[in-house]
Amino acid sequence: KCCSIQRTFKNKINITEICVENGITKVELQVIIPYTMCSNLTDVGLSDEKGKSYKIVGMKNIPTCPTILQVRKGHKFYWNFEALDKGISSLDLTENKNSSLAPTFPNWEFWYWKDISVGHCKF
């Protein structure tokens, strides 16, 4: 049960699809330009338009900060969350849900997407 999304962050990272299967919501992201990246599991957040937050349960193809990975254009990585509720129409995804974190490295930026439309998805 996957749904095409195609939402970019500053023409650098694209959410390509969101899948819900076996009680897991898998967000697939793809690098648009060569990138140096890492992520902190405890700071990645997903919430719906009703304000419900979904617990992150893992990530794949992206290291935990401060370990970094240099990737080429086209690299795909995944953030996995608990299953989404039925009938939601939009999601917010952020790499800095605590909003108070200092970047891991100078000139670092946190990725975020607001109002990701998922009303067309059949989860």
Structural account:
By secondary structure, the chain is an all-beta fold. It has no helices and eleven strands. The strands form three sheets. A five-stranded antiparallel beta sheet has the order 1-2-3-9-7, with no helix packed on it.
Please describe the topology of this protein.
Elements: E1 2-9, E2 13-21, E3 24-31, E4 35-37, E5 45-48, E6 53-54, E7 56-60, E8 69-71, E9 76-82, E10 90-94, E11 112-117
Antiparallel strand pairs: 1-2, 2-3, 3-9, 4-8, 5-6, 5-10, 7-9, 10-11
Low-confidence stretches are none
What's the main sheet like?
Answer: 5 strands, antiparallel
Number of E-type strands: 11
Across the major sheet, the strand order is: 1-2-3-9-7
Tags for this model:
11 strands; 123 residues; mainly beta; 0% helix; four-stranded antiparallel sheet
Question: What's a concise summary of this model?
Answer:
This protein has 123 residues and is mainly β. Helices cover 0% and strands 49% of the residues. Strands 1-2-3-9-7 form a five-stranded antiparallel β-sheet, with no helix packed on it.
